[in-house]
Predict the 3D structure of the following.
Amino acid sequence: MAKKDNTGFFEKVYDAAREIPYGKVSTYGAIAAKIGSPKAARMVGWAMNGSHAAFPPVPAHRVVNRNGLLTGKNHFEYPEKMEELLEEEGIMVRNNKIIDFKEVLYVFND
DNA sequence: GCTATGACCAGCA
DNA sequence: GTGCTGGCCATAG
């Protein structure tokens, strides 16, 4: 808390995404649940759609779907950019999917 | 104010 | 086990 009123839902998503530490990933549902809307997972994805305009930058490459699949890789500068970033952080990616997903999955603390 | 969309999730055939 | 449909919340037009 101790946070001023953000622009809205979007800023909350950005803030949650920035909470993800290096070498870790998270899911849309987890972020949505953290901000108080476990059903707004879709909105989370859409929020990330404008994450490129957010500052500080949001590590959207650390945000994947429930299956650990790089669903939003298509929205990056180029599709393989997401995989590169993940592998750069020590996260193994195979066929657009994160290996040992549960091991690199970051859990938010309330 | 209503309709359409969105990088999802869960249930059902 | 795989594929698809519905629902869910919030923003933009």
